[in-house]
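User: quick one - fold this with FE2/S2 (inorganic) cluster bound?
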Amino acid sequence: MSTTMDHPVEQVGGVTAKYVDERLGSNKFLGRNLGKVFPDHWSFMLGEIALYSFIVVLLTGTFLTLFYNPSMVEVVYNGSYVPLKGVQMSEAYASSLDISFEVRGGLLIRQMHHWSALIFVAAIAVHMFRVFFTGAFRKPREFNWLVGVGLTALALGAGFTGYSLPDDLLSGTGLQIIRGILQSIPLIGTWAAFLVFGGEFPGTEIIPRLYAAHILLIPGIILALITVHLMMVWTQKHTQFPGPGRTNTNVVGYPLLPVYMAKAGGFFFIVFGIIALIGGLVTVNPIWIFGPYTPDQVSAGTQPDWYIGWLDGALRLMPNWESVIAGFTISWNVLIPSVIIPGILFTGLALYPFLEAWATGDKREHNLLERPRNAPVRTGIGVAAIVFYGILWIGGGNDVIAAAFDLSFNVLAWSLRIGLIVLPPIAFLVTKRICLGLQRKDREKLVHGYESGRVLRLPHGEFIEVHQPLNYKELAIISAKEDLPVLPAPVKSDADGVRNPNYRVDQLRHKLSSFFLRDNIERPTDAEIEAGQAHAAHSAGLEAPLHEYEELDQDPVGHGGVLHHPGMPMTNQEQVDQRQ
Amino acid sequence: MNEIIPGSGANGEAARDGHSSAPAKLGYSPVAEIPHRLRVTDTDPKAARRAERQVAGMFTLSMVFVILSVIAYVLIDKYTVVYIPVLGDVGASNVVLGFTFGMAVLLIGAGAIQWAKKLMPDVEVVQERHDMVSEKEDDNLAAANYERGKEESGFARYKMIRRSLIGAMVLLPIPIIVVLRDLWITPPGENPTEILSTTMWTKGKRIVSDGTYMPIRPEDLPIGGLVSALPEGILEVQEEEHNLNARGKAAIILVRMDPEQIRSQQGEGWDYNGILAYSKICTHVGCPIALYEQRTHHLLCPCHQSTFDLADSGTVIYGPAARDMPQLPISVDEEGYLIATQDFAVPVGPSFWERDKA
Ligand code: HEM
Ligand code: FES
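Assistant: Sure. Structure tokens for the protein plus FE2/S2 (inorganic) cluster:
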């Protein structure tokens, strides 16, 4: 620390840094990393929302543990909520009611916990879409995609176990369905259900067991995985969208200290604050309405939390197949929607980066994100998966929809079943078409510039349509497109007649690669682009005397970025000042 | 960025593997040359002062909200309910605590972001990336160290040690799995299949109505009516077993219809003068059912809409359930109360692997 520190706060900071550094060598890390550059884009905040809502979940959950009692011992309620006075219920439910009515701020924290859980899962899902559609999962980030898939599954588990804890009628009904699902697993299902519930359903063990999973096991693993996730982001550096000055080998953005830290830190408080406001103003899961759980009662028309809706929909849409083989029952009607389909979806999700890399033969490192249109097949697959999920989700509300539109369940169910099979492929084709159309438009822009829509009559009588050159931003973004050729078809045997032992695999790979890449609209060459832009500039120039031709970005008063490297002699501000 | 010449032959291996760091490419301009607009706060010291006051104002307001929230915690009675338009009748304490605390937190965030946007440099900076792959030197060092370790331990040479170690590691998890067996401390002689296949119902067991727990006479049931019912003594069993297991299996519904309308039953004469008893637990995944349409005799499960026809042996006429709703044979005792004449003939509730072995 060579600079003089005259402010007392800085002195304290400096002394502390030195104290710690002498023991841990921490300044080596700080020196390298306080200036670390993070690119900026609104969609990069989705992961942050997930992280921050998880922190809120941890804080509020810890508060709840101080009052919640995970016990299924029956007690008679004697709290202040009059309609339930004198009713028999589990201690778990009674303590959840007490949190809601007797503990000041308890309801706020309970509702914040539930809201932040909902936001947590939603943010994870949207964050995953962002990563998928921009190809951020490509090399070198495949591991982090896997960690993300794991986190998604765990988040669903955390939400479900939490939803079961209050032991009200809704949570018990959810558990009953879990029991039915467990029992449908061939061979081991019956025993699995008995082991999980500690005997027959509902028993008295399940709440304490879910509690251990909910407050220790699952959040512990989530915390560990989040740490790994962020460490990988840190070492690999964040991806960035293409743009002026952005290449595959640099990062353009704001330094950790101070801008990124202020923005990200500030954003944490914003997320936290909004959750507190929602928790105070909007009721979620009013457990007192439903009453305590008993296995012979149910309340009609209730919906599970949104992220479970698709599984519920799958259960509803499945035809009632069951087979008895050699006296043993296989309940396809439960097994397929609740075990097999989710299994396939999550496996597919986990394997996708590896499948795509194998199919396209792409082994490069990718630090620049790909625009969804430039990967039409990937984008199509993503949209098809969302449509599939969406139909299951709608199926989860089929009673509500049937009532609202006065449809019979049968008609609705069959429409949804057919839709489930037909619509995803259609969505795939339509999406791919749209992407290719956009690619074509991009190509037009590169070789001809913008169509301005204005027609100009030249002095010698010729009419031309005025084209305008792309501005530097668009040019950088659009021209960043990268093309890959289709992998060559393999030969059965080479010139010497030696058979290719991998022929079948290579052939499959060739076909897949062709599926991914063959329709690609090639990016024009640099020379073509340059000629096209020059031509457009010329036509715009012809028009210039007639119209007040104004380029939006033509009045730069400042300058762009500065080269940032650790240990640099000047601060950013000094460089800024120097250039002006 | 990679330079890929479009259509550069079928073999794209070079393009796929390559990672050149030369960014000289069309559309690329060094960041320093990108036009950049100065903000008002960069050029006008007054605007900068204003921004400073805004930020400080938000932080100050946050403190005010903290104080308000503590006051609200102390002063607002926790049972006070107020009417707020849109929100309806809500707990005053909850709303005020949420609002004040939420604002206190939100304002810190808003202030920090305003600070970053208005007063901290908004110039983007550049850092170089490096491939994740290690330098050749490190590669070699790792390989050499690995070889040394392999050599010194003799892992490759001592075949017997290697194999036995692998065997030991494979077996090690077994006790960890075995020890989970007592997640269910199985009472002697009991097994899941049997437990799932028997309920509290026995020959002569009286049927009592849910809620009052009073025995039911046939004439208590109007035609078209549906009553949720349980075996007599259910409360005592619950008391004794400290759980709701018996209730979860034995719950039934009673319906009464014109005997003419009963098309079939699961057993000859299992009704009593048009009164039928069916399990209340859905055969799909076990939700309790009580939505009954008396005109069609359809019983509808609220969970996934499986529909059973009670006038026709409780068969599934719609939905994901695969099994008919089990019927309980009933009659009356000498005092004229409804009774069961035996237990269910098949297991109630969701299917399971050994269901048909029962
Ligand atoms: C990892 C992400 C987590 C998610 C998605 C989650 C979700 C949930 C949900 C949806 C509920 C039901 C809330 C209600 O409406 O009553 C709940 C309850 C609960 N959670 Fe969490 N939770 C998480 C982590 C935690 C942690 C880390 C703790 C404690 C350290 C915790 C403690 C509790 C407690 C005690 C309850 C019962 C509260 C009651 O019934 O009133 N949770 N959780
Ligand atoms: S539990 Fe009755 S239909 Fe699913």
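One thing worth noting: The beta strands of chain A are 37-38, 74-76, 88-90, 250-255, 323-325, 328-330, 450-457, 463-468, 562-563.
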